[in-house]
């Protein structure tokens, strides 16, 4: 809705000229240039004064922090259209949903239904997720099914995916604004936890249990410049200060944290390079790696690697891989850093799915499962997280839906 003061003034000027009155005389009490005209199309503009006057900030994408504009907005103009016309104003930084409100129209905040936001806005969301972010459900997965607690004892090859040591597999999700959320303890109904922001710079995120020897689930992240980082878990659902592992990892097409592949009790990392060579990076139990070992060539035909755990119950970590023809393969680990003869476990159609992930035992039966991002047939901007329960002999059962997430989000 276009702000009216300047438009009414222009109408008065037109009428004055028609009556032979002096336009100059009528123009003397005019306000500054109309804020609607100053604001560019396909944007939201905040103003430092009521009436869409004063300094102006142009907002075209979600802003986790307004920086120097924190607590300065007194009025705003919405010049968005169509499906992405919603905005959400947050009194706290980071798009924290507490106290937030959504709108589709231009307003003076002191005259709005939320005058408490006048000079009290610290972050702003715009676009199709704005309504959901106000209510928080667009920020992290919407869980559908409750899962059972894992057995009290799991073999080392299956004890991974639990960030806060509560006995349940946990989902980590990076959302469209780079926030990382952990979803914990589904049976208690507790809300997901914000781990932190700034994760948009990462081009790969992988995890598979403890890599630094403290018993807590860790995460490896590769950034846009090719540096690999270890985020050591603190056992409570978040991380200690990160540790730089090294550079040059952008030469790798894919990474997979796969657990103990070499049989020494320390978790290892797999990486396939641009030439289609697969490498094992033996973990040293302190978070980084010894000299890499060549597994084999010909892996260009594989477009997804998943460290899914012990899928065939031989107490050795295995690899699940999807090829470019859309077939799914199990590569049984031999405990020496490479694999026995592969086994076809999905005959086709797996390329229609998005990312695949291994979170260990999700349904509480003690067997490793597989998670897939699948398109939601009912909603164009959402995916479903579908769980394929492992049978314990290398096969997968029919899937069930664990959660719904935005297509712009990544769960692992």
From TrEMBL:
The UniProt entry, under Gene3D superfamilies, shows: Integrin alpha, N-terminal, Tachylectin 2
Q: Where, if anywhere, are coiled coils annotated?
A: none
Signal peptide extent: 1-27
Show the stretches that span the lipid bilayer.
none
Please provide the record's keywords in A-Z order.
Answer: Signal
UniProt xrefs under Pfam families: FG-GAP_3, Inhibitor_I36
* Protein name in UniProt: FG-GAP-like repeat-containing protein
- Species assigned in the record: Streptomyces tanashiensis
